[in-house]
């Protein structure tokens, strides 16, 4: 009785002369896997957050509106500076989508052009406060001792000044309400907050093992501050700066509404709200439309700041 030969498993073989299948990236010679970083993880997380996507789209539209307002007014050609007093306070119509204000100016065109000053003030003030407050906070937190004590006491003096009252005082001294004086008044009073946040982050970071190791290897103070500490301490400053940007836009509108900020003939949402206030009951559109744009802009930046905060803080994921 003959034994049966066991059946051999059938395997697929590559065709003669066909190239071998490509290697997976991790099996290639010399492949080194890049370690994940906080920023790459944050960007991966942000792209999947509806809050970030929605706020980014809104901010992108507002920035384009500020840079190229004619793109939005060319749909239905209207002039922001041409006013006819005989047509004052006309209601919205096909020719004038948001109606006309107390001087007979087109509210839609002025609202579009008003975005430029408001967003310029917000972005520029945010950059200035982040740079000044961040640099001083980095120095104070790294140096410590008497330097930290003196700079902290000076910062507390600025914290004792009410924001609106301090801005009113500064603008009253200059007696000219324009973009530069408004940005100066806001930046002078806002940098201490960034200083405190950066100082606290630097004090925490400079005691970490990687900083101690770099110091033991002979790294100088400049290299320790800007190469090792700053990249790991700047995260909370970025989050606060993103949220503060919307606050600076609303602060500019408040100062312009009080009559000490941006002045006519310059156009900003605060100026439009101030001009429309006396006749609000007769024509609500000239006040409501710029106020709505202002609210949406501030909300968009606050939403963006919240999304960035959640993505950069591992504890909130």
Element layout with pairings:
Layout (H helix, E strand, L loop, with lengths): L37 H9 L3 H18 L2 H4 L33 H37 L1 H15 L3 H12 L4 H27 L3 H8 L4 H13 L1 H23 L11 H8 L8 H28 L5
Helix pairs in contact: 1-12, 2-4, 2-12, 4-5, 4-7, 4-10, 4-12, 5-7, 6-7, 7-9, 7-10, 8-9, 10-11, 10-12, 11-12
Tell me what portion of residues adopts beta-strand conformation.
under 5%
Number of helices: 12
Q: Whole-number radius of gyration?
A: 29 Å
Spans of at least 5 consecutive residues with low confidence: 7-15
Shape: elongated
Query: How many domains in all?
Result: 1
SSE class: mainly alpha
The run of helices and strands is HHHHHHHHHHHH
Which architecture per CATH? Answer: Orthogonal Bundle
Mean pLDDT: 80
**β-strand number:** 0
Enter the CATH topology name. Answer: MetI-like fold
CATH superfamily: MetI-like
Fraction of residues in helices? 55-70%
How widely separated are the two ends? 71 Å
Overall CATH class = Mainly Alpha
**Main sheet specs:** none
Task: Explain the overall architecture.
- Residues 1-16 have a biased composition (Low complexity).
- Residues 1-29 are annotated as: Disordered.
- One of its GO terms (biological process) is transmembrane transport.
- Keywords: Cell membrane, Membrane, Transmembrane, Transmembrane helix, Transport.
- Belongs to the binding-protein-dependent transport system permease family.
- The chain has 317 residues and is mainly α.
- It has a single domain, classed as MetI-like (MetI-like fold, Orthogonal Bundle), CATH 1.10.3720.10.
- Helix content is 64%, strand content 0%.
- The protein is built from twelve helices and no strands.
- It has helices at 38-46, 50-67, 70-73, 107-143, 145-159, 163-174, 179-205, 209-216, 221-233, 235-257, 269-276, 285-312.
- Helix 7 packs antiparallel against helix 10 and helix 8 (209-216) packs antiparallel against helix 9 (221-233).
- The N and C termini lie far apart (71 Å).
- The relative contact order is 0.13.
- Residues 7-15 have low confidence and may be disordered.
């Amino acid at each position: 009785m003959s034994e049966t030969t066991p059946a051999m498993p059938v395997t697929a073989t590559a065709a003669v002369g066909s190239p071998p299948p490509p290697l997976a990236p991790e099996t290639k010679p010399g492949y080194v896997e890049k370690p994940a970083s906080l920023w790459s993880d944050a960007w991966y997380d942000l792209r999947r957050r509806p809050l970030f996507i929605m706020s980014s789209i809104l901010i992108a539209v507002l920035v384009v509106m500020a840079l190229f307002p004619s793109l939005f007014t060319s749909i239905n050609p209207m002039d922001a500076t041409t006013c006819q007093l005989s047509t004052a306070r006309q209601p919205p119509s096909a020719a004038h989508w948001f109606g006309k204000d107390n001087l007979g100016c087109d509210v839609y065109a002025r609202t579009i052009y008003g975005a430029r000053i408001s967003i310029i003030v917000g972005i520029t003030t945010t950059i200035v406060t982040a740079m000044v407050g961040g640099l001083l906070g980095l120095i104070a937190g790294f140096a410590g001792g008497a330097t930290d004590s003196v700079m902290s006491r000076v910062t507390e003096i600025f914290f004792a000044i009410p924001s609106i009252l301090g801005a009113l005082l500064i603008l009253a001294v200059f007696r000219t309400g324009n973009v530069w004086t408004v940005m100066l008044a806001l930046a002078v009073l806002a940098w201490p907050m960034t200083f405190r946040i950066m100082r606290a982050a630097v004090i925490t970071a400079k005691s970490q093992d990687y900083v101690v190791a770099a110091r033991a290897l002979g790294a100088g103070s400049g290299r320790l501050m800007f190469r090792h500490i700053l990249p790991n301490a700047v995260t909370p400053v970025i989050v606060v700066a993103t949220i503060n940007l919307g606050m600076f836009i609303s602060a500019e509108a408040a100062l312009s509404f009080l009559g000490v900020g941006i002045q006519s003939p310059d156009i900003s949402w605060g100026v439009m709200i101030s001009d429309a206030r006396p006749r609000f009951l007769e024509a609500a559109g000239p006040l409501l439309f710029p106020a709505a744009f202002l609210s949406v802009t501030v909300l968009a930046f606050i939403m963006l700041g919240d999304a960035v905060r959640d993505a950069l803080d591992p504890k909130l994921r």
